[in-house]
Write a structure and sequence with these properties.
The complex is a heterodimer of chains A (516) and B (254). Chain A is of the alpha+beta class and 516 residues long. Chain A is built from 14 helices and 7 strands. Helices cover 72% and strands 9% of the residues of chain A. Chain A is elongated and about 225 Å long. The longest helix of chain B has 18 residues. The chains are: A alpha+beta (516), B alpha/beta (254). At the A-B interface, α13, β7 and α14 of A face α4, α5, α6, β6 and α12 of B.
Chain lengths: 516, 254
């Protein structure tokens, strides 16, 4: 197959030959395409597009001021929200009014179709994060402008109203909650008061108080007991000491003094005897003195024997006196005993107090359960109530923000304009496409035919592909009539092309005039 | 040139009728085939025949070229050339007609075109000849009537036409008949300067052309512009006797 294809130097002349042979078809195709383009260009519905862009600013100034106080509505996809708002029946109904579709007094079904149609021609896109573009296409330029403008206005007012409604709803809800909790809190307070009236001990902290008191009393009792024990042991010690001590003390008796003199003299005698004999005058004098003393002792002894026999206890001797230690011990003992008595009475008092306090503690423990339940109720309600109060104030601020349109602001960045030129495919596009297709499609077909049709179109191919000698290549035999007919065809084709060009020129002129 | 032809024509006026009448004595007259009603240039154009004017020079030169090639192949003797197309509608009859005319250009030669396209005979119409005396088939069916009455003048000097006559489906049987062969032989050998041209049926679709080719010395295969593929040409030529195939004529049909 491939060797039946044309070689490149055969291709061009064959292309020309084929083009000449099929010129009628080629030119008719050109004319058909070009005229089709022209007709399509004329009758293609014109589309006027108008668009407006809206900058959405959300609490840009107020936000840092109100940080944490007011809750701003977060929104991720503004275009989606805008689409929801715009495609609401309320807005679309107004658009139908603005666009003048209501004039024909459509039936509900027709109205539905009109609305669907309008919807399909509205596009809402996010240009940037906070920039929404609303575009609308229509066959009527002025209507496109009016509808786009109204769409933007309606979108803004509806969004603001929705925001306002939302925050005032929130405020009202929180307010109602606050009322409910205030009632609950008062209730709990009353209950608590009543219970406390009935139970004197049921006060906050009375258990702690009682515990402190009990431990204090216990310490007192313990201390008293320790003191008592100490005093008792002291008493015992004193009693023991007293028994060991004599009531009176004999400090010096005459007999004693004699005996002491006697002992001294004996010592003197012994010393003298070491150096002297019995005849030494000193020795004799000492012996005499000792004899005297012994005599006196004997007298004294006999006197005492007499006194004892007579039974007189009184001090016989002038030097006899009462023992002072004994006296002191006796006074101390008396003091100790006094203390013991005092301590014992204090201990008794403390113990009775402790008993009272313990009884009170038991009563407190009994009332504690009820009290803690009531207190818990009260505290929980109080916390929630306070929180809600705070929240209500936040909500009030948010509501005021939205009421003043400070939470969300819409700025029309680019207002809708009256479209002067139709958008989309225009006459020129169709015309160019028609002419282009008219020229290139037939040529492409021709090229395809010449390039891929295996039938032989050049004498040189025969020799090259079959090896059979070519005797001659006979040109087409043309008679005068043929030539005349061919010329007439050519002229007609040229006229056809001129007619197409004229049609284009006429339509272009008409269009220009319409714009001027 | 015209003047010369006119002189010839005036000399020869009425000879053919005489020849028909006289039978064998007319042979001499037949040797100088001339036309009592020579065609004008306009008439030639209407019949799509080459002529000596400038208008058809390209076509005429092409046929002269073929003539020269055939003559160089054929040597000194006259010969029978069959013109056949690869496929119908390729203009084989046009080529056969004009090739015969090109031979007839030469005053030393004359040519006889035999329309062997029995199924769709068209040469008599193309020449505007009223074949009321019958044609090839009539002769083969009734040879006793004589050949001379079915050989017609064409209006082109030195070119005669033997039309097909009544059309027949079974042409192959006629071509292979002894009578056909005898006819061709006798026609060729009648005059040494007479060249015979058989306008055969197309090769594609029927074996008639191959059968007919047995009678011919040379075969000219006509391939039309944008009609036949190289494969079909090769196949068509392969079915013929390779020694007889003179070559292919590439015909630009309208």
């Amino acid at each position: 197959m491939s060797n039946e294809l044309l070689v490149s130097n055969e291709l061009t002349p064959i292309l020309f030959t084929e083009a000449r042979r099929r010129r009628v078809l080629l030119v008719i195709l050109l004319a058909v395409f070009a005229l089709a383009g022209l007709v399509a260009g004329i009758f293609w519905p014109k589309n006027f597009a108008s668009s407006t862009s809206i900058l959405v600013q959300e609490s840009n100034i107020i936000k840092p001021l109100m940080e944490g106080r007011a809750v701003a509505t977060g929104n991720a996809d503004r275009a989606a929200i805008a689409r929801e708002v715009i495609f609401s029946r309320k807005i679309l109904d107004e658009i139908v009014e603005v666009g003048g579709w209501k004039k024909s007094d459509p039936s509900p079904l027709e109205l539905e179709r009109i609305i669907d149609n309008i919807k399909s021609r509205i596009t809402v896109i996010n240009l940037r994060e906070n920039l929404i573009q609303i575009a609308y296409k229509d066959s009527d330029a002025e209507r496109a402008y009016l509808v786009t403008q109204r769409l933007a206005d309606l979108f803004i007012s509806e969004s603001l109203a929705a925001k306002e409604r939302e925050s005032s709803d929130a405020y009202r809800f929180i307010d109602s909650q606050v009322e409910i909790y205030r009632g609950k809190l008062t209730d709990a307070e009353d209950k608590l008061k009543a219970y406390r009236g009935q139970n004197a001990d049921a006060r906050p902290g009375s258990e702690t108080d009682s515990n402190t008191r009990i431990s204090e009393l216990r310490t007192q009792v313990e201390n008293a007991r320790m003191d008592l024990m100490e005093q008792r042991s002291k008493e015992n010690a004193l009693v023991a000491q007293l028994t060991g001590e004599s009531e009176i003390t004999a400090v010096q008796t005459r007999e004693g003094q004699y005996r002491m003199r006697l002992a001294e003299l004996q010592t003197q005698l012994d010393t003298l005897m070491l150096t002297y004999t019995d005849q030494h005058p000193d020795v004799i004098r000492v012996r005499h003195q000792m004899q005297d003393l012994q005599d006196q002792v004997k007298r004294e002894e006999s006197q005492r024997a007499q006194r004892t026999a007579g039974g007189t206890p009184a001090p016989i001797d002038d030097s006899v006196q009462f023992n002072p230690l004994y006296q002191e011990l006796r006074s101390k003992l008396a003091e100790v005993r006094r203390n013991i008595a005092a301590q014992q009475s204090r201990m008794g008092a403390s113990e009775s107090l402790l008993q009272t306090e313990l009884d009170r503690g038991r009563r407190i423990a009994d009332s504690e359960n009820n009290l803690s339940e009531l207190t818990r109720d009260y505290e929980v309600n109080r916390d929630i109530y306070q929180d809600l109060l705070k929240r209500r104030e936040n909500a009030r601020v948010s509501m005021n923000l939205d009421a003043d349109h400070r939470g969300l602001t819409f700025v029309i960045q680019e207002p809708a304009e009256l479209p002067l030129r139709p958008s989309g495919l225009r006459f020129m596009h169709f015309g160019l496409a028609g002419i282009g297709a008219g020229i290139f499609l037939p040529l492409a077909l021709l090229f395809g035919l010449v390039r891929f049709d295996p039938r032989i179109r050049a004498a040189s191919q025969i020799e090259r592909l079959t090896g059979i000698p070519v005797l001659a290549s006979v040109p087409m035999y043309t008679t005068h009539k043929d030539r005349w007919r061919s010329r007439r065809t050519t002229v007609l084709l040229v006229l056809l092309v001129i007619a197409v060009i004229a049609a284009y020129a006429a339509v272009t002129l008409m269009k220009l005039k319409m714009f001027l | 040139m015209n003047r010369e032809r006119d002189m010839q024509l005036s000399d020869e006026t009425g000879t053919i009728d005489d020849a028909d009448a006289k039978g064998a004595s007319g042979e001499r007259a037949l040797a100088y085939l001339a036309e009592s009603r020579a065609l004008t240039t306009t008439q030639m154009e209407e019949r799509r025949l080459i002529h000596r004017d400038d208008d058809s020079r390209g076509t005429a030169d092409a046929f002269r070229e073929i003539r020269t090639r055939l003559l160089s192949l054929g040597g000194v003797h006259n010969f029978v050339t069959m013109v056949t197309a690869v496929s119908p509608g390729s203009g084989a009859s046009f080529v056969a007609r004009n090739l015969a005319a090109a031979f007839a250009f030469d005053e030393a030669k004359n040519s006889l075109l035999i329309d062997c396209n029995l199924r769709y005979p068209g040469q008599h119409r193309a020449f505007g000849v009223d074949a009321n005396q019958g044609g090839l088939i009539d002769y083969l069916d009734h040879p006793s009537k004589g050949i001379d009455r079915v050989v017609y003048r064409t209006g082109v000097p030195r070119l005669r036409l033997l039309p097909a006559g009544v059309s027949r489906e079974m042409s192959g049987e006629y071509f292979s008949s002894f009578r056909m062969r005898a006819l061709v032989d006798s026609l060729r050998s009648q005059y040494a300067e007479r060249y015979l041209f058989l306008d055969g049926p197309p090769l594609k679709g029927s074996p008639d052309a191959r059968i007919l080719s047995d009678l011919a010395d040379f075969i000219v295969v006509v391939a039309a512009y944008g009609k036949d593929t190289a494969h079909s040409i090769r196949q068509a030529v392969a079915s013929l006797d390779q020694n007889k195939v003179a070559g292919v004529v590439f015909n630009h049909t309208p």
